[in-house]
């Protein structure tokens, strides 16, 4: 498995993002979904990482959006056939490493209460719950977390 910074505008990555959207659509109503679309993922303040399996197929992804005061983790997802292998943790570590390199000292994220594996991953990586940030509003279907990182 390899992880690299890539464009999200590739057929296998687009398919992976579509799987993530379908999964989240099954859990949350549209007003509680805060996903970035493909055009947003291609903006200059966004770093997009892709995990690829041994045959080069996209199996996971994650984005880091840089804002002036913090970075936000978005679109972290691993295809079901890649779960349980530490890929999500490696993607998260890659994004955190890139944030440190960019001198970003605070990472934030929004996820949902029905994503137990995601909540466990973030908690085990040192993220703590917090209130809404940026343009988010208080929503019972949102869990907000943050982590101070060494920059």
What does the model show?
Keywords: Acyltransferase, Transferase. InterPro entries: Acyl_CoA_acyltransferase, Bact_Acetyltransf, GNAT_dom. The protein is an alpha+beta fold and 151 residues long. It has one domain (2-148): 3-Layer(aba) Sandwich (Aminopeptidase). Helices cover 30% and strands 28% of the residues. Strands 1-2-3-4-5-7-6 form a seven-stranded mixed β-sheet, with helices on both faces.
Distance between the termini: 27 Å
Q: How many β-strands, per DSSP?
A: 7
Q: Name the structural class.
A: alpha+beta
| CATH homologous superfamily descriptor | Gcn5-related N-acetyltransferase (GNAT)
Unreliable stretches (pLDDT < 50, length at least 5) are none
Mean pLDDT figure: 96
InterPro entries: Acyl_CoA_acyltransferase, Bact_Acetyltransf, GNAT_dom
Protein name: GNAT family N-acetyltransferase
Domain N-acetyltransferase: 3-150
Organism: Massilia rubra
